[in-house]
Design a protein that fits this description.
The chain has 448 residues and is an alpha+beta fold. The chain is built from 15 helices and 13 strands. Strands 1, 4, 5, 6, 7 and 8 form a six-stranded mixed β-sheet that branches. The protein has a five-stranded antiparallel β-sheet with strand order 9-10-11-12-13, with no helix packed on it. α3 crosses α6 (104-113). The relative contact order is 0.08. GO terms for molecular function: DNA binding; transposase activity. Residues 20-112 form the Transposase InsH N-terminal domain. It comes from Litchfieldella anticariensis (strain DSM 16096 / CECT 5854 / CIP 108499 / LMG 22089 / FP35).
Length: 448
């Protein structure tokens, strides 16, 4: 074929370069992996097998396996079997491992047995980035995402699932028993076939009931009243209106270079208790004393915001709009303005809600305010359905108000959060296969 780029014959002998190093360019990322791993103190990090045994078959040095692991992470290769194949055919990996080809079991065992050492390696990489001055902007964004575990939803049991399944089994058994009664009145041949089939179903359901009773004992003894059979640590979580059995992955991402500074995997489905811990981890990892942290409203919790304030960490996050009064069409809490000089509130009608008493609810000291003018107020139908509009104020409410004040002055911080912390999760999940179509639109004929 003329006027096209032509290939070479497959039977043509090829003179490869004399050195494998000639195949790897000077700016190839594998050279960075090589330099980074060779600079690590693997013994200090806790990797197994650094010191070889005096007898037995020689083992692979953990540096070789760590290079394979890092190469797989950077190139979207998670499977140990795929890494085994790549080591046999990939020129970059051949260069990186000096033509060593460990099998998949060796690679998988290395990853399984050196979890803490690999995490410490990630920590050393963050320290290296800090030395290079990559965290100078002192702004990190925090977010969490649910990752599905290998545990199927049918093998995760909560109180609601157990109750629902027990009711389904009971209805099924009743239905099959009624069919047995009906089969007794049919023809003999049909009756025997139907009866045998229905009895098998009833026996299977009875066996499942016994299994559920055993699982119920385990579930009732669990701290969170939940049990997973395949992955004991996986938990049922709600994400985007659906349920997933998995883990909640938390990350703190640098806003300038989009590097993950700190991360944590937890089986707690809510983000409300994660803010201060992740913020402190990010501060320690980045080495920045004056840290600014941005998160979404799912992290808003008074105690967590206070912990960040006491640790000297500046937070930006919106307060959830969960006012029951606003849902009923009444004045929201924000419509009543607090006057710190007088320690009182002013309502939209201009009346004063003065301090009455304080009490302790769920470990929090709350101050209670209301106005005696509420019963005769003309705007009372827009304010409350009770006799008085009562306001409860936390003793550290001023800290929460300062957070909202900072966000009002810098609303662009929430846009910065979306641009920073959501991309790594999207990339990770795309690497894991949970991606979308890469092409757009239908053919014209297919739209009709």
């Amino acid at each position: 074929m003329k006027r096209f780029v032509s290939g070479e014959s497959r039977s043509q002998a090829t003179l490869f370069p004399e050195f494998l190093d000639d195949f790897v360019t000077e700016d190839n990322p594998v050279r960075a992996i090589e330099a980074f791993v060779e600079a690590l103190d693997l013994r200090h990090l806790g990797f197994q097998g650094v010191d070889p045994h005096a007898t037995g078959r020689p083992a692979y040095h953990p540096a070789v396996l760590l290079k394979i692991y890092l190469y797989g992470y950077l190139n979207r290769i998670q499977s140990s079997r795929r890494l085994e194949r790549e080591a046999q055919r990939n020129v970059e990996l051949m260069w990186l491992t000096e033509r060593l080809t460990p099998d998949f079991k060796t690679i998988a065992d290395f990853r399984k047995n050196n979890g803490k050492a690999i995490r410490d390696t990630c920590r050393d990489f963050v320290v290296l980035c800090r030395r290079l001055g990559l965290f100078s902007q002192a702004i990190v964004t925090i977010d969490g995402s649910k990752f599905k575990a290998v545990n199927n939803r049918d093998r995760n049991f909560t109180f609601a699932k157990m109750k629902r399944r027990a009711e389904e089994i009971e209805k099924s058994i009743e239905h099959y028993l009624r069919q047995l009664d009906s089969a007794d009145q049919g023809a003999l041949a049909v009756t025997e076939a139907q009866t045998a089939h229905l009895k098998e179903k009833i026996a299977a359901l009875t066996e499942e009931v016994q299994q559920l009773q055993v699982i119920e004992i385990r579930r009732s003894q669990a701290p969170d009243q939940q049990v997973s059979l395949t992955d004991p640590d996986a938990r049922s979580m709600t994400t985007r209106g659906t349920g997933v059995v998995g883990y909640n992955v938390q990350t703190a991402v640098d806003s300038r270079h989009h590097l993950i500074i700190a991360h944590e995997v937890t089986n707690v489905g809510s983000d409300r208790g994660q803010l201060s811990r992740m913020a402190k981890r990010a501060r320690d990892a980045s080495g920045t004393s004056d840290l600014n942290v941005v998160a979404d409203r799912g992290y808003f919790k008074g105690e967590e915001v206070l912990a960040c304030h006491e640790a000297g960490i500046t937070t930006y996050l919106p307060k959830p709009k969960t006012s029951p009064s606003q849902a009923r069409g009444l004045f929201p809490r924000e419509a009543l303005r607090y006057v710190p000089e007088r320690n009182e509130y002013r309502c939209p009608a201009g009346e004063r809600l003065i301090w009455r008493f304080k009490n302790v609810e769920k470990g929090q000291v709350l101050h209670c305010y209301w106005s005696s003018a509420c019963p005769g107020c003309s705007r009372k139908p827009q304010c409350t359905t009770g006799i008085y509009r009562r306001i409860k104020r936390w003793e550290h409410e001023s800290v929460l108000e300062s957070v909202q004040g900072r966000l009002d002055q810098k609303p662009e911080m929430m846009r910065l959060r979306r641009q920073t912390v959501e991309h790594p999760f999207g990339t990770l999940k795309a690497w894991m296969g949970a991606t979308h179509f890469l092409t757009k639109t239908l053919k014209t004929s297919a739209r009709k």
